Amino acid sequence: MDNAFSNMIKSFEKLKEESIGYLIKEIFLDVDCEINKVGSIEWLEGTVSVVENVRLTLEDYLPDYVYLKDANSDALKMQLQKSLAKSYITAILSKRTPLRSQSKREDFAHKCIEEARTIDETIEKLPTKIASNVGMESPFKVVPKLMDFLKLNDLSMLCLEIASFMKHYPDIKADHFVALLSLREDIKTGVRKKVAESMPGDTDFDKNIKTIFSEIIIN
């Protein structure tokens, strides 16, 4: 009897996860093509509108989810944050837009930070319903920290910045840093060597900690 009940609970949990996955997939059918434009020259120059289209799409979907049970609503919200943050960061890291000046790098960084904040605030319109889930950090909070690498003026501080970042995100890989720093025209040559020299040793951090970077694959 206990095994039968346990199996039934597992079946319901699997059904919940699959249902949440379908709901998020439905949203991504509308927003994924928009987020893929992030980091492009057209996006940076403002000839395409990404964040406004994403915001309007989310505001169209989110009211439908207020009727979900508390646990299901919170699970959907957290998975949506994670999926959208993953997609947004992946879009940034997959571009090769040359940022030749400090002002261009700061413009790029500012745009990313503002868009990430707007998307995150839009998702937050779906209230967290279970007390233990309140205050959990959104994966979008990493975007400003990533942008600090583009805004960095003194490249002699790169090693220190990487080590400091990895204290909070120990699962980030050298490939992630290389993809990000390759946007900087001033260190594009030899960037992989610079990153390799700046990365702390594997024993310096707990590699069992998993953050958004464990799910971001750089091709």
UniProtKB/TrEMBL annotation:
| Keyword annotations of the record | Exocytosis, Transport
One Pfam family this sequence matches: Sec6
Give me any GO biological process, just one: exocytosis
**Protein's recorded name:** Uncharacterized protein
Is this entry keyworded Lipid biosynthesis? no
Per the record, the similarity remark reads: Belongs to the SEC6 family.
InterPro entries tied to this protein: EXOC3/Sec6, EXOC3/Sec6_C
**MF terms in GO:** SNARE binding
Q: Which GO terms describe its cellular component?
A: exocyst
Q: Record's superkingdom? A: Eukaryota
Question: Transport as a keyword?
Answer: yes
